Amino acid sequence: MPPETYEKESAPPMMAVVFHLKEFMKIKDLKDKEDKFIPFIQDYVLYPSKEKSYCDEESLKSYGVMPSQKGNVSSEELKVIAEYMYTFYDQQVYLKEMQAKAAFDALSKGEQLVRSNGCLNCHAIEKDKVGPSFRNIAKNSTEKIMDVIQNGSQGKWKQFNNMMMPAFKDKFSKEELIILKEWIDSLGKIEAPKPWRSKNVI
What we know:
Elements: H1 14-24, H2 30-46, H3 57-63, H4 75-88, H5 91-105, H6 109-116, H7 134-137, H8 142-151, H9 174-189
Helix pairs in contact: 2-4, 6-9
């Protein structure tokens, strides 16, 4: 998926391949997938040629014609691959992926670490869950917070003794621990959101 690209690509991104094929084959519905898209993939991957290609001249100059994969993949396997290509590399799926990535990239580095490492399975930012909220964690000393992250929570959070947090000392680098510490500390400095109340309520 873009925007990940490489300076010395040996082939165009799969998303570009699928969008290109759908456009030039004038794919309109699922029937076209069975009648046009899948048979093309099955044939071209095994018996590629410049004449069969839908690539423009510049792309062919850059990448060349792909080598035949005959002997590496069967026609039955190519049907499954083509099904996946058609379904996954879809315009709407692509847009959702890009929106999700943009939202994630907009987060602070600390929150990115928390979300990408599954921390929110047990901790919420504002409210206690299985474990204390990050806002409540922020009320503790930096030393205690770092100790719990690295060595686990056994005996250190009395109100949450039923569920022990495992040690994460091998999960985060020193640099990531500093980022986490700064992010958690920042939550203690931000006023918690107050429950909404109508001005008309007496």
